């Protein structure tokens, strides 16, 4: 039951954000840019483990991988502006982001970071 509640709450937030974005792109962007997924993950993690150290580790890990996630928000609109249709643009932006994550983790490990 707890898993269903978590899924419903998380899904409701995504639906609300997408509905809001249809009415106002800036308000939708503000809602989507909030770290709601991270906050929910931290709440669920703490509730399940009661361990603030695990929440701390997750928070630091999110911070370290934030930079490569920005690739998606650069590649997608650039492709769309250049008349690449939506679905191929989305796939290419996801692939570019995955490559950026891989490069970021590889580079971090080369300088001694342990993520």
What is the number of helical segments per DSSP (H or I, 4+ residues)?
6
Name the structural class.
Answer: mainly alpha
Q: Give the topology string: H per helix, E per strand.
A: HHHHHH
Distance between the termini: 33 Å
**Poorly predicted tracts of residues:** none
Fraction of residues in H or I helices: over 70%
CA gyration radius, whole angstroms: 17 Å
The chain-level mean pLDDT equals: 90
Number of E-type strands: 0
Beta-strand content: under 5%
Shape: flat
Query: Which sheet architecture does the biggest sheet show?
Result: none
List the helices and strands and how they pair.
Layout: H1 2-23, H2 25-33, H3 36-49, H4 52-64, H5 66-81, H6 86-110
Helix pairs in contact: 1-2, 3-4, 5-6
Written account of the structure:
The chain has 6 helices and no strands. The longest helix has 25 residues. It has a domain of 50 residues. The mean pLDDT is 90. It is mainly alpha-helical.
List keywords for this structure.
115 residues, mainly alpha, flat
Would you kindly provide a brief summary of this structure?
The protein is an all-alpha fold. It has helices at residues 2-23, 25-33, 36-49, 52-64, 66-81, 86-110. Helices cover 86% and strands 0% of the residues.
């Amino acid at each position: 039951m707890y898993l269903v509640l978590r899924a419903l709450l998380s899904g409701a937030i995504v639906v609300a954000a997408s509905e809001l974005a249809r009415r106002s792109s800036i308000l939708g962007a503000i809602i989507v840019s909030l770290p709601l997924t991270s906050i929910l993950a931290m709440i669920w993690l703490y509730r399940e483990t009661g361990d603030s150290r695990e929440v701390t580790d997750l928070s630091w890990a999110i911070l370290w991988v934030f930079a490569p996630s920005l690739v998606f928000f650069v590649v997608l609109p650039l492709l769309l502006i250049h008349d690449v249709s939506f679905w191929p643009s989305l796939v290419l932006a996801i692939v570019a982001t995955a490559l950026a994550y891989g490069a970021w983790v590889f580079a971090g490990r080369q300088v001694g970071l342990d993520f």
